[in-house]
Amino acid sequence: MSTQSPVLLSACAVCATITFSLLLRWSRKRRGSALPLPPGPPRLPIVGNMFQMPEKNVWETALEWGKTYGDMLYLEVAGFPMMIINSNEVATDLLTKRSSIYSSRPQMVMPVIGGWGWATPMLPYGETHKWHRSILHKFFASPNLLKYTESQQQGCYMFLRHMLESPQDYDRHVRRLPTVVMMMNTYGHSVKDDNDRYVVQGEKCARTVTDFFGYFVLDLMPWLRHVPEWFPGANFQRLARESRELSKSYRHDLYALTKKNFNEGTAKECLTTLYLESATNSEGVVEDEELFGDVTSIVFLAGSDTSVTGIMNLVLALLKFPEAQRRAQEELDRVVGTDRLPTFDDRGRLPYVNALCSEVLRWQIVGPIALPHYTTEEDEYRGFRIPKGTIVLPNLWAMGRNADIYPDPLEFKPERWLPGGVNYDSVRPEDFVFGYGRRICPGKNWAETMLFITAATLVSAFNLEQAVDADGKPIPLNEEYEGESIRYLGKSECKITPRSEKIAALISEYAESF
């Protein structure tokens, strides 16, 4: 948990939680239970495991704890029960098979006072969340209705042209690719450049929401939300105020523009126009319009950052493991040839490229700790008691590095997923990196297809090589990540060149056709 919170709040946390913790413990004893809590690091009186929680990379610490305490790690932070799950089997048993108990969210203070309580990932489980999910599932579970693979393929062709023109800026082109596609899929909005008003606004929203995780202390003492902004140490109120203003404009502006274009007959087909066509009654009133506006406005924030990191991980893997790149290129040359670029029609005949994508998802997991689930009832599992109100965190990082399931887990081996490979019949990373149960990412299929077409077109068109210094020695790759809920990776010094003059001409031809 972050220690970036104001000193005043941190000091108050230790003092003010004593009474709360004692009352909570007393209440639990009154309820009573013969079953023990799951194992975990020893807890101190009152504060529990507060001072054992790492400042960052909690998933790595939890992986180490798991070697001693097992796949279910129970902790308490100042009276708040928390459980970290290191095993896909346990996560499936609880979060999927018992999803009626484990599908809610803890109501964190900063997202609520910061104006983001409406966002789908933040909603507690209930009717509003179900409605959001139904819309997202309808349009993103498959490409048949929204036809998003067409936009993804077109976006990739433009991405290749940008790579051809300025390969040294590959990180900027990667950031732009999912953004362009997601904006088109959701709002029919064409992003012309990196200074697009709505893209800049969305990126600012993403950074603001990320800052919320530095104020976990407010969840220990929610009454602090009423402290005025002028009070010393209450700079979280300034952040919350600015966030509310940003949330309001982001929530409505682009939807309003798309609706205006739709009414004027100039809008491109997208998620918003398809909904407007089906939900506008004879009097011109759009059913559940506010709810729908909430759904669309979160799509960009939820999908673009994760896809960017996934593609940056792909580039890192291609640079670090040139043999995997070579094998993928051999397959693409054999199946697709050199007279055209890959399409989705080729996907079923490219087992190695598909395996490459699976291994990217396992090798460097985008979000090592999934967003927290929250128990709405007390539960019993494997002889342990899991209290009502427990924050449950699936440790996806640990799952992808389980050496009992994935031999040599730190190595990048796409062949493990091929027929006859050691993990061909194992749990695939696609089965857990997108979450569990009623909280599984509704954009899972979109993200998988986006990663595939990016990998196929990039590897088919370019050679990616590690850069060397003046003495001919390889320049170390950048493998430093930032962020907690989503990890962000910067670019590495590298050399990216078209595989031939013919492919360079093809890239220009394809890009100009759209």
From TrEMBL:
Pfam family, one: p450
Record bears the keyword Protein biosynthesis: no
Coiled coil, from the record: none
Keyword Oxidoreductase: yes
Database matches in CDD domains: CYP64-like (cd11065)
Record: residues binding heme: C441
GO terms, molecular function: heme binding; iron ion binding; monooxygenase activity; oxidoreductase activity, acting on paired donors, with incorporation or reduction of molecular oxygen
Alphabetical keyword list: Heme, Iron, Membrane, Metal-binding, Monooxygenase, Oxidoreductase, Transmembrane, Transmembrane helix
Cofactor field: heme
Transmembrane segments: 6-24
Pathway where it operates: Secondary metabolite biosynthesis
Organism superkingdom: Eukaryota
InterPro entries: Cyt_P450, Cyt_P450_CS, Cyt_P450_E_grp-I, Cyt_P450_sf, Cytochrome_P450_fung
Gene3D superfamilies (UniProt xref): Cytochrome P450
UniProt family annotation: Belongs to the cytochrome P450 family.
Protein name: Cytochrome P450
Originating species: Schizopora paradoxa
